[in-house]
Amino acid sequence: MSRMGVIVSGLGGASALGSVIAAQMAAMHDPQPPLRPLAAHPETAGVYPDLLAGWIDDRSWLSGRKYGGASNASVRAARMAVDDAGWTATDLVDCHIFSGTSRGNTGELFGTWKARDPNRRLSTSNSMHSETASAVSVELGIRGPWLTLTNGCSSGLDALALAFLTLSSGAARRALVIGVDFPLMPELLHQYHDTGIISSNNVNNPYSADTSGFLPGEAVAALALEVSDRSGPRILATLANSDAYDNIGLPADSAPTIRLLEQTLKHPHLRHRRVSAICPHASGTLAHGMAEQKAITTALHDASRTPVSLHFMKPFTGHSLGACGAIDAVLLCAFLRQQQLPPNLPGLTTPDFDRFPAPDTSLMFDPASCVLKISAGMGGRNVIVAFGIQHPPK
User: Fold this and answer.
1) Which of 87, 247, 255, 262 is the most exposed place for a label (fewest CB within 10 A)?
2) Is-same-fold flag (5-228; 232-390)?
3) DSSP secondary structure string, 258-303?
4) Which residues, at least 6 apart from 286, have a Cβ–Cβ distance to it below 8 Å?
5) How far apart (Å, rounded) are the C-alpha atoms in residues 125 and 68?
6) Domain boundaries, the chain
């Protein structure tokens, strides 16, 4: 494979784990998850007070006079990723921006969000999902095209996949990927409850037979991508498909996800690499947990007998909707920089502990292998991004 690949050169973002990447990595070694009862959240008006959720303690991430809360956080995360990548103002001029969000600046749309200073002149833009991308363009002086994807819970990973495909095609040398969602507001929580997808028993174990729904969380993530021979996490391939089944439900046979995994294993850039790890979507709903486990065990049943470790992120962060794929990717890449795979919370259920372990300590990552990140969006959107490590030329 060419030494010039699409690498992840910069990371930024905040979640329930913290507001600095190193601090979030350290928090993942704590056996106690940072999820807390919603009664302690500053802006939920006391709804579902016992529900476990994750949120960003530093509310300044959401606050500002010019933009909506999700946009303010997107700008801050983007600056972190750009600084981490060492990009200059000149590097940014022709950069492309891809933003993924399920609910965008929903607080401003409802007119109930209190995390920013009110500014009537910006009321319209603050209620638009696309402001999460345009604000980054304006504040960082980026004149390349920007695009916002709202593909439900796959939005963040879809944005990363589209950025990779754009850079792989030669259309650009650099791209910024943003994933952001702040679902902890009464209006959205009521919708999730009415749909029956929010947890009713606070089981924080996505593949358990006792899981009853997802535990919501806030997150914002940014990844700086570039075509380079620099060392670091490298995106190897991406594939996607759709269930074409139901707007909420999942096909019982898991056929679309099985087919997507099988196609991924046959991809020209992956077929000679062992899949050493999977970071699943693991939404927290029972139906999804059963379907995803079936897909993984079916698609990889003929693979090498070497174990494929599973790395669950949502038990640490909560389910951050359209941001979950991006914040998962940020945390995964942060560990890959150290040639490691992230730990899990202790005691998580897997479909087969011998074949698909969920280690509660970080593992060394074999650079000759790859790790698959899976995301799934309501409505049946499935996407996989495969990561490896690129080393500098000798």
Assistant:
1) 247
2) yes
3) HHHHHHHHTSTTTTTS-EEEEE----S-HHHHHHHHHHHHHHTTTS
4) 209, 211, 212, 213
5) 8
6) 5-228, 232-390
CA angle at residue 296 from 292 to 301, to 5 degrees?
150
Q: Is the separation of the CB atoms in 20 and 2 below 8 Å?
A: no
- Supply 298's token pair: 């079916």
Q: Are 5 and 227 in contact (CB under 8 A)?
A: yes
H-only helix segments in the chain: 21-27, 69-85, 89-92, 106-110, 123-126, 131-140, 155-168, 186-195, 255-265, 286-299, 314-317, 324-336
**Three-state secondary-structure class, residue 317:** helix
**Contact criterion met (CB below 8 Å) for 117 and 63:** yes
Name residue 159's amino acid.
Answer: A
Tell me the average pLDDT of the chain. Answer: 94
User: Which two structure tokens, joined as six digits, stand for 112?
Assistant: 């109930």
Burial 244-276 (b: 16+ CB within 10 A, else e): eeeeeebeeebebbbebbeebbebebbeebebb
With a pLDDT cut of 90, the percent of the chain lying above it is 85
pLDDT digits (tens, 9 = 90+) for 202-220: 999 999 999 999 999 999 9
Q: Which amino acid is at 69?
A: G
- Classify 232-390 by CATH class: alpha beta
* Better-predicted residue by pLDDT, 282 or 123: 282
143: helix, coil or strand?
Answer: coil
Q: Which architecture does CATH list for 5-228?
A: 3-Layer(aba) Sandwich (3.40)
Amino acid letter, 377 = G
Q: Please give the DSSP secondary-structure letter assigned to residue 54.
A: B
Gap between the Cα atoms of 94 and 78, Å rounded: 15
